[in-house]
Every structure is written in C-alpha cells, then in structure tokens.
Amino acid sequence: MIPGPRGARVVRLDGGMGTALIARGLPADLLPEDWVLRRPWEVAAVHASHAGAGAEVLLTCTFNLARLDLAAPDLDAGEVARRAVALARLARPAAVAGCVGATGLAGREGRGPSPAELRERYALACGALAAAGADLIWIETQLDREEARAAVAAGRGTGLPVVVTAFLVPAPGGMVALDGCPGVDLLEVLWRDGAAAVGVNCVAPDAALVQLVARAAARIPVSLVVKPNAGLPGEPIGPAAFATGVAAAVRAGASLAGGCCGAGADHLRMLAAATGRMPQARG
Question: How far apart are CA 181 and CA 194, in angstroms?
C-alpha cells in the first residue's frame, strides 16, 4: 500500500483518532485505548467515518502502546492491539497500519531510557500489532532522533514495512525536531535505517511544511508522508484551507496524505477532492 516515491497516485490516509473520540465524549482521564476495549463501537465509528471520507489507510487506535504499562497499567497491550486491528479492519480499508506513538520518555531531565530500553518497548508494541494482523507498522509523532531510530529498528524486526513520521517545529533554518535535529536530516537518517516511508505529522499545513517536503524530496528516494493537524484548540483550520495546504505539500513531493489532531471526515473529504487525481511531483 506504500506507493512508489515519484509519480505515484496519492494515497489518502485517515484523520485524528484521539480528537475524534474526545468529541464523542472520551473523558480527559482516559486514554483512547481504554475505549478500544470498553466502548469499541465508538472507535469503529471513527474508522468508518474516515474510510467513508476517502481514507485508504487506517491507523489503529494504539498510539500509546509503547507506554501503556506506565499510562494505563490495567490495560493489556496484546489485547488492545488485537481489538484495535480488528476494529480498523471492520471499515474495510486497503491497509491497516499498526500505530505506535512516541513514549515521551526520551529527552527528559536526568537519565532517560537507553536506546536498548526504547527498542524493547517498541519491539513489544510492534510485535503485538504484527501478531494482531496489521499490514504495516506506523510509528508517529517522533520527537527525538535516537528514539525514532530505536522505534524503526523495532518495527523492522517484525518483518513488516515501517512508516515513521516526526513532529517538527518551525526554526529559522527550516523545521527541526524537539531535540534540535534538522527535520530533513532526521528523515534521511530514518530512511537510511530502513523505513519504507518517512514524513511528518501534527504540524501545520503551511508554507514551512511545503518547504520541508520539497527539501526532503530532493534528498530522500522513498515515499514522503504528510499528516498535518487541523489547528490548535480554539483555532481550527477549516476543511478547505486544510486541503489547500496539504495539496501544496503533495505538489512538493508527498505521496501519502491525511490529517492528524482535529482533522475529521469533512477535512478528509475536501482533501480527497483536492488530491484525487493529483499525481505526486516527479523528481
């Protein structure tokens, strides 16, 4: 389901699961994974709405799987993975991506986890998703280069294709990771580590994203992913403006496109209309 790096049809991704569940009543003190087990119909409804709006790849509701023992020790990671993959599969997407987000443990003051500790966390999470039948491993919202590398290594250990996206912030020389690593450098490292596709998520669909994608397309031969958010709380980006921003990133070289926090079915429908016949820019 991962397209070729140049000239391929744009593959449409889903929108934000966590914010969609909050809108459906998920309490602030619960993780989305809680509803995978206790209110699965809500998770299934979000997947169905995203698929109905044109999403071809659905990410499982397992963002916190690599830190579930810390954040929600009453939840069994293996059972969450099994149920989450099954719920995504109900919407009949072209592919179900086993999603694992950043642990939030790297870069803390004092001693953070070693690369080996991080790799073990991701290996358990990715292994559970692979065993549950995911078609690929999707590692997202990476904040730190060494954690991202550990995650990719763990994902590749499953034998499934690995996609990895980073959260980057604007800087004078271009977008950078929270650990200060230049964004394009980070994506190149992750490609060289074996990721089948690399990109960004939860960034703004703006000119900085377009510039990042254009620079990455000149250096990185694998597919590029853009999954921007739809604005900060209280400052939403409407579907039309969102689609315009993402379409610009596709013209710059991205070939997998969807949304992150705040991006719902209306955003995805507008994005599908904007990119449905648009080939990726050729290098």
Answer: 19
